[in-house]
Design goal:
Rossmann fold; seven-stranded mixed beta sheet; three-stranded mixed beta sheet; 9 helices; 26% helix; binds S-adenosylmethionine
């Protein structure tokens, strides 16, 4: 189901309406009658809509994939002082802020106004598939956990990076997606699943860039603690059976 609300939806109200529509559901409120438990409510939304809602809670809880990504990507960052960095699909500006704190002129770009409102960096609200920047203007383009929503943005990352400059990208690993992982978030009382496109890492190529590093790590011990704290310790071993993410570095020729 793709939703299109004019303002933030009240998910509790939606959940209650869905529950009331069922034959044996409670007549009012979210509390189920004794002995009756509603199936979890799962809403699928387009990215722009989903992140409008998720912005308020996006950075609130530790996230195992972000933990794994940060410890994989950090060693790949080039010298940042005095460099121009554009973080595409930046969300709340996690990487843009990191680069800015280390002396880069960093810009966060996202099409979600609500995510950018929580970003401390200079920000541009635009679609990553049509970047409002001139060719070869950036020393470094970063795209973290956003290509799955807009694989077409990769072409734009190539365009804005100068020859000799670098692209760094991370995302949920396509193999994890094929094995049933979803891009979803708990947003009580519902789970929001964000609509995405399937793509492969081999698609992320072109004659004017060279893939210099590719990591396809699985979740490790540092992430086990995050699963434990979230109350899903029993799911951890299963989650380590496939590469969780990829982190790739390209240099523009
Ligand atoms: C999972 S969040 C990642 C945010 C940030 N890069 C990070 O890693 O913390 C995905 C972000 O991509 C943004 N996004 C998705 N499709 C986009 C598009 N076509 N153009 C710009 N931003 C997009 C969403 O609004 C959201 O903020």
């Amino acid at each position: 189901m793709t939703t299109s609300w004019g303002r933030l939806p009240n998910l509790r109200a939606i959940a209650n309406r869905a529950v009331r529509g069922r034959k044996k559901g409670p007549q009012a409120g979210w509390q189920p009658a004794a002995g009756w438990h509603p199936a979890p409510l799962c809403l699928t939304m387009e990215a722009r809509e989903a992140y409008r809602i998720l912005a308020a809670s996006y950075d609130r809880e530790p996230n195992a994939l972000i933990s794994l990504e940060e410890r994989t990507m950090l060693p790949l960052l080039p010298e940042l002082r005095g460099r121009t960095v554009i973080d595409v699909g930046a969300g709340t500006g996690r990487w843009a802020s990191y680069c800015r704190a280390r002396g880069a002129a960093a810009i966060a770009l996202d099409f979600s106004h609500e995510m950018l409102c929580r970003c401390a960096c200079p920000a541009v609200e635009a679609d990553g598939r049509l970047l409002p920047f001139r060719d070869s203007c950036a020393d470094l383009a970063i795209c973290a956990f956003a290509l799955g929503y807009a694989p077409g943005a990769f072409r734009e990352l190539r365009r804005i990076v100068r020859p000799g400059g670098m692209i760094l990208a991370s995302d949920v690993h396509p193999e994890a997606i094929r094995s049933g992982w979803t891009r979803s978030f708990r947003h009580n009382p519902a789970t929001i699943s964000v609509a995405h496109e399937q793509y492969s890492i081999t698609q992320l190529t072109a004659s004017d860039i060279v893939l210099t590093r590719l990591f396809e790590p699985r979740l490790g011990e540092p992430e086990r603690a995050i699963f434990d704290r979230a109350g899903c310790a029993d799911r951890f071993d299963d989650a380590t059976r496939v590469p969780a993410i990829f982190v790739a570095q390209w240099v523009r020729t």
